[in-house]
Amino acid sequence: GGYNVVFIPFQGDQPTGGWEVFADGFAGPNPQPSTAHHRPSGLAEGPDGSLYIGDSVRGTIWRVRYVGRG
What we know:
Helix content: under 10%
Strand order of the largest sheet: 5-6-7
Strand content: 35-45%
Radius of gyration: 14 Å
Number of strands: 7
Structural class: mainly beta
Number of domains: 1
Order of helices and strands: EEEEEEE
Number of helices: 0
Largest sheet: 3 strands, antiparallel
């Protein structure tokens, strides 16, 4: 475990459902600690609403943003 970014829906301060995978594939083909390509370890929200995902294996930072109609 620990190789996905998940979403848990909330209403107020209470969860309203189970978790859902939001982003995966970080570990690569073999999700083991000794061979994982990346491991998401921190999240931050930018001023434009982008989600930043930090990686504790290689130090990569990904930016996830909405593109489309909103």
